[in-house]
Amino acid sequence: MTGDTERTTQTTQLYERLRTSILTLDLLPGQSLAERGLEARFEASRTPVRAALVRLEAEGLVRRDGRSFAVAPIDLAEIGQLAEYREAVETAAVRLAVQRASDDDLDALADELTSTADANAAGESVQAGGDFHSRLAELAGNPFFSTAVAASLRRLERTRWLEASSAGSRDHARDEHLRILEAVRARDADRAAALIAEHIRGTHERLREALSSEDWRRAHAVS
C-alpha cells in the first residue's frame, strides 16, 4: 500500500510540474516528451511518468507521437470552437444567475474580485479569471453549467496563460469582469449576457491575432 501511495504522489507531483512547464511554454508545442528523458529530468520512475503523460493527454496538452508523446500544438480551430461553446453556455448561465443568485452570493463574488485585484502574475490572473467564470456559472444553480465552464477553461488554459502574460490584457479582463458583475447585481439579464458574450469574443479575437502571426506560428508550432 505504501508503494502505491508513493507512486500516486509522485504521479501527481510530476503531472503538476509537466503541466506548468507546458502552460508557461518552458516545454514548447510540438516538443518531444521521451519517457526516458523525463525519468532522468524529474528523477522519476517509468510508471508515474506514463501516468502523468496519459493524464495530460486527456486534457489536450499532450498527444501521442507514434510510440512516444509530444506537447500538443496550439490548435486555432479548436480555440475558435471553444469560444463559440463558451459563449453559448456562459450567456445562458449568466441569465439564470441573474434570476437565482442571492444578494449574499453576489456580494461574496464581488469580494473575491476585490481580493484578486492585485493579481499581477500570469498564473494568478488565470486562476482569478477562471474562478470568476466558474463561480458565476455555479450561481446559475445548475451543475451542468459549472461543469461545462470548468472543462472549457481547463482546455484553454495554455492560451489563457499567453493572454495573461500582458499587464494590459490582465487589466482589461478584470475591468470586464467587474462590469459583468455589476449587470448581474442590477438584475439586468440582457446586459449581463451581452457583456459576457463581448468579453469571450474579445478575448478570443486578441488571442487569434497574437497566435496567427507568422513568426509566432513558426516558433511555437501553432496549427
What is the fold's blueprint, element by element?
Layout: H1 2-23, H2 35-42, H3 46-58, E1 62-65, E2 68-71, H4 76-100, H5 103-115, H6 122-138, H7 143-155, H8 157-164, H9 167-185, H10 189-212, H11 214-220
Antiparallel strand pairs: 1-2
Helix pairs in contact: 1-3, 4-6, 4-7, 4-10, 5-9, 6-7, 6-8, 6-9, 9-10
InterPro entries: GntR_C, TF_FadR/GntR_C, Tscrpt_reg_HTH_GntR, WH-like_DNA-bd_sf, WH_DNA-bd_sf
Organism: Agreia pratensis
Domain HTH gntR-type: 8-74
**CATH class call of the largest domain:** Mainly Alpha
Determine the structural class based on helices, strands and strand pairing.
mainly alpha
Following the backbone from N to C, one meets helices and strands in this order, namely: HHHEEHHHHHHHH
* DSSP summary: helix tally: 11
The radius of gyration over CA amounts to 19 Å
The CATH superfamily title of the largest domain:
GntR ligand-binding domain-like
Sheet with the most strands, sense and barrel status:
2 strands, antiparallel
Average pLDDT figure:
87
Q: Which architecture of the largest domain does the CATH hierarchy give at level 2?
A: Up-down Bundle
Strand order of the largest sheet: 1-2
Tally of extended strands? 2
Provide the β-strand percentage band: under 5%
Domain HTH gntR-type: 8-74
Protein name: Transcriptional regulator, GntR family
Keywords: DNA-binding, Transcription, Transcription regulation
Organism: Agreia pratensis
